[in-house]
Amino acid sequence: MVQATNLGFPRIGGQRETKKLVENFWAGKITEQALDEAAVKLRAENWKLQQAQGLSQIPSGDFSFYDHVLDHSVMFNVIPSRFRHLAEGHERNFAIGRGIQKPATETQEKVDIEAQEMKKWFDTNYHYIVPEFETNQTFYLGGNVKTVQEFNEAKALGIHTRPVVLGPLSFLLLGKAAKNSPGLDLLSLLPNVLHVYEELFARLAAAGADWIQVDEPCLALDISAAVVAQYHAVYTLLTAAVPKLKFLIATYFGRIGNNISFIKDSGVAGLHIDLVRAPEQLEHTNLAAALKLAEAAVAALGSDRVFVAPSCSLLHAPVTLRFEKRLASKNPELFDWLAYSEEKCKEVHVIAHALNHGADSVKADLADNARSIEARR
């Protein structure tokens, strides 16, 4: 059976709950415990919402209060020395992303600690916090690992998720050398960081995970043959080290091209490719066109080897149209053309259902989509 899945879900909340919580925490109106308790509820809502839309593989570990790359850095102990005097917790994490600026007082000198650099996340309007690596960088996991914790949260709700982790090569390639480590070759850190990935994946397997989604967006960039060879070596090692896990490598925002050669004989069980940005890898896509594209994949691979998902993580999309009541009443035609994350999950399910049970089983959905596409045209 073809499975409907997703690569990531917006963390802001349907009515911007996360944004409001974080701003209240910054203002000292709520405690760190209250922030965490509210996040548990938001994550549960996100998983249940995706489940309600018919997704059979739902991501976990994609939630963040600020930035998922920053969270990954902290989880792996990649914390600039200027922040190491701060106690572990949200205050320190936000300080890394925002810096610390305090005016001088009668009892204290002025404090001005520079934040880590922000950089555009590929060609989206989202910005990530650039990891800073040092020559003698020490990587390790703490006791309470975010990705494992969130997998277990979903498991307690009866939802078996696919954990999402930023891959080791993209983690290093998206970073930079710290000021105290000029000229550092970031890929020289690969052997040390791989030991921590092995430990993380082993903990996830022990918790009951069977699939792991490893995001490697740098595969869509123009990278050298030497780096592609590193991808092959890395995933041959990791898949052998944790044989209980099936690895889904996700790349998006472009065409993977010749970089796909890394996957041969690597032990990787699945590869997500972006057929919206680069449809030539297998048409702005309506459901009928998407179904046609997916049918070609099923014909080539068989239904048991095909997942249907959005082209990339929905992390940067709005959550749901359900609260856009003003737009629905003032401009129903425009409203009809829109699909936010919740609606996109439903569309993914419609395509998977059509592949498994025939187009007639979703005839009404396809007809409604065709009508909307024609009206927009």
TrEMBL record:
Tell me which InterPro entries the record gives: Cbl-indep_Met_Synth_N (IPR013215), UROD/MetE-like_sf (IPR038071)
Give GO MF terms, alphabetically: 5-methyltetrahydropteroyltriglutamate-homocysteine S-methyltransferase activity; zinc ion binding
Q: Which CDD domains match?
A: CIMS_N_terminal_like
What the entry lists under SUPFAM superfamilies is as follows:
UROD/MetE-like
Q: Per UniProt, which keywords does this protein have?
A: Methyltransferase, Transferase
What residues does the Cobalamin-independent methionine synthase MetE N-terminal domain cover? 4-287
- Pfam families with a match to the protein in the record: Meth_synt_1
| GO process terms (BP) | amino acid biosynthetic process; methylation
Entry keyword Methyltransferase: yes
Write out the coiled-coil annotation as residue ranges: none
Tell me the protein's name.
Methionine-synthesizing 5-methyltetrahydropteroyltriglutamate--homocysteine methyltransferase
